[in-house]
Amino acid sequence: MIGWNFKKFIPSDDEQNPFEKLLKLFKELLLHTSGDVNEAISWLTELDKKYNLTTPEYGIGDFVQDLMDKGFLSKPDHKNPVITPTSKLEIALRQSALNDIFDQLKKSKRGSHTTKFSGQGDEKTSEYKPFEFGDKIDQIAISESLKNAQINHGIDDFMMTQDDLQVHETFYKSQMSTVLMIDISHSMILYGEDRITPAKKVAMALAELIKTRFPKDTLDILVFGNDAWQIEVKDLPYLKVGPYHTNTVAGLELAMDLLRKRKNPNKQIMMITDGKPTCIKKGKKYYKNAWGLDKTILNRTLGLAVKCRKLNIPITTFMIAKDEWLVNFVDQFTQANNGKAFYSSLDGLGEFLFMDYKKNKRKRRR
Fold it and tell me: N or C end of the chain, less CB within 10 A?
C-alpha cells in the first residue's frame, strides 16, 4: 500500500534551542537551591564542565544574560546588586512542575469540574426542565419553548408565558477548597535524601493546576515544623527545611482555621509528610519526643483527625516513607478521619496527588 505514515515529532538534543535546554536544567537546580540563583548557576557551571552542556558559541555567561534579557532574572544595579528570580520565572517553575507531574491534563477544558449530577453549571445535558425563578436567560431552550407555546395557545392566538418556557439542564459543577500541608521538619532531608524538593514540585503543580484548570477552586498552602504558618504560592520555590520537629497538630489546627473561612461546602486537607508527629505545644512551651510515637502527641493528633471527620473534611496523607511503624500510625490516623493514605516513593508522589485531587473533586455535598 502506497501512502504516508505519520508519527509524533520528537526533536533531538541537537535540534533544541540551547537556551531552552539550559533553562530546563536551571529551573530544576533552582528548586534544589531554594531559589538561590548564584548557587544554581554555580551548579550549572560545574555540570557544564563535566558534561559539556554548552558550545563555544553559547556559554553559561550568554545563558545568564539571556535570562535577564528575557525577564526571568532581575538585573543587578547599585540599589539591588543581588540577582533574584522574577515573577515570570516563578510562573515558569509552576508550569514546568505541572507539565512534569500532570502531563496528562489538557488545557482545552478549562473551568470547573463536572459531575454526573445535574444542577447549576455551564455544560448542557440533553435534558430539559420547566423554567424556574433563578434560571439563567441564556439557558432557555428556544425551540422547546416555542413548541410548548404553539401547543398550549395555538397559532391564531399565539403567545408565550412563563409556563411555556423550557431550560437546558446542565451538569452540576463542584467546587473544592483545599489546604495543602507541607512538612518542613528536619527529617525531610535526613540521611542525605532530598524529600522537600519533590514536595515543593507537587505543591507548585497543584497550585498551577487549580489556577489554570479550576479557577473557581481555592488553595491555601501551609508549612509545619515546630509551628505552622501559611505561605503564598510564590513562596513555594524558596521553601527550606529547618531544624524542626513535626508538629502535625499545629498544621491541622491552622488548616481547619483556613477552611472555616471558606464558604464552599466541599473541603479537604492534603498533607505531604515523611514522619510521625513528634511535637505539640502546651501553652507557650513545646512538648517534644523524637524517639517514638508518644501517646500524648498521638492522642492530640488523632483527636483532630476525628474532629475533621465530624466536619466532613477528609484528610489525604501522602507518606514519603514506608517504615512499618510509620505505616501503622498513618493507618490509625486515616481510620480516625475516614480519609485516605498513600505510601509513595518520591517518583510516584505527583501521580498519587493528582489522582486523589481529581477524585475528591467529583464529590457533591448538599
Answer: N
Q: Helix crossing, 324-337 with 295-310: angle to 10°? A: 40
Please report the DSSP string for 196-244 in residue order.
Answer: HHHHHHHHHHHHHHHHHH-TTSEEEEEEESSSEEEE-GGGGGG----S-
Rg (CA), the chain: 26
For each of the domains in the chain, give its residue range(s) and CATH number, in order of start: 13-85 (1.10.10), 114-172 (no CATH), 175-361 (3.40.50.410)
245 is written with which cell numbers? 520537629
- Indicate the pLDDT class of residue 1, thresholds 50, 70 and 90: low
In the numeric block, which cell numbers belong to residue 302?
Answer: 488523632
Write down the pTM of the prediction.
0.74
CA-to-CA distance for 29 and 32, rounded, in angstroms?
5
331-358 burial code (b ≥16 CB/10 A, e <16): eebbebbebbbbbbebeebbebbbebbe
**Strand positions, DSSP E, the chain:** 113-118, 124-130, 166-174, 177-183, 218-224, 228-231, 267-273, 279-282, 285-288, 315-319, 340-343
- Cα dist from 124 to 109, 127, 128, 361, whole Å: 14, 8, 9, 19
Q: What is the pLDDT of residues 69-100, one digit of tens each?
A: 999 999 988 888 889 999 999 999 999 988 87
